[in-house]
Amino acid sequence: MAALLTLIASCTQKTCHIEGIAEGKNDGDTLMLITDMENGVPRDTIFVSGGHFEADVPIDSVCLCILRVADSTGVIQPFFLEPGTVKLDIKKDAMRSTVGGTPLNDEWQKLNAAALSFSEKMAQLQSQMSEDPSESDKQQFLEKLHAEQGQLAQLYYEVAERNISNELGFVLTTNPELLSEEQVLRLFNMMPPKMHARKEVQEIERYLKHTGNADMGQDPKLQDFSAKDPNGKTVSAMDVVSKSKLTIIDFWASWCQPCMQEMPHMVQIYQLYHPKGLDILGVSLDNDGDAWRKAIEQTGAKWTQISELTRDSKIAAMFGVRAIPFTIIVDQEGNVLASGLVGNALEDFVRNQLSED
Description:
The protein has 11 helices and 15 strands. With 357 residues, it is of the alpha+beta class. Helix 2 packs antiparallel against helix 3 and helix 8 runs parallel beside helix 11. It starts with a helix and ends with a helix.
């Protein structure tokens, strides 16, 4: 009887087998498996041996998780814990890491590859621009950027729609970096009823109505803060905010893959709306100053950037930032207008605000 019960248990238990390669890692180096995305508390530690790693993880349900390299680089690889064998290739350049082997992770990799291709095309187009481009050159660049971004956004929507009843569809819909408000609302209407009870869906619904301050733990007025820029100069947030009609406070980091994927769109928004009164204040959660400065240069994020150069950011804690990228949008007086918007939802909000002036 005991043997029979053991056999039944082994047949019904779900397991995710994780295996992969960690570039540049040595024997004994550790990777932290994190499923508690809100608090970042590691669930398991996986050790590297001969550049490889593997582990069997019991799972109750499919969920998004991250595998974080436990060293100063802090490279993060997101993937889905689901039954089967997940294969990862973790690179020093997080954007070039790959994942696959199971249905949701194969779909996830298609999006990662498309986002990397988009970033490379935009970088190439930017490198071809002269230091003082003509209005015609700027317009051509923006037209190409919009065309490429439109194709990427359509792919995101198609994957989200195809997976709307599972965890991948949920993640894409509640992290709408590229989707328009209309697309997000359409996806919400397709979601199974049980998903509408999840707080992430309810929060996005509030953001879409431009009342996204409920979960920020702050007053409607921006609380001032300061940190050093890449040159070591202390910069006050309100000094930046007071000089423009609208300011996006963008929480990001060079080690954050979604942040780096979103950055070309942030550059686009800045180029389009800076002449109309928009500014951006970047708040980096990097702890490596060289990586931070390199990312600014590579992405063209030339607006004001500051960082405490620690992951335990007091500024992020002040605003209840639990995941990045994360944005707060304020007017010239520091009144908080919205938060948590990224991608097309962010651009739509900026356009509407500045068109009202």
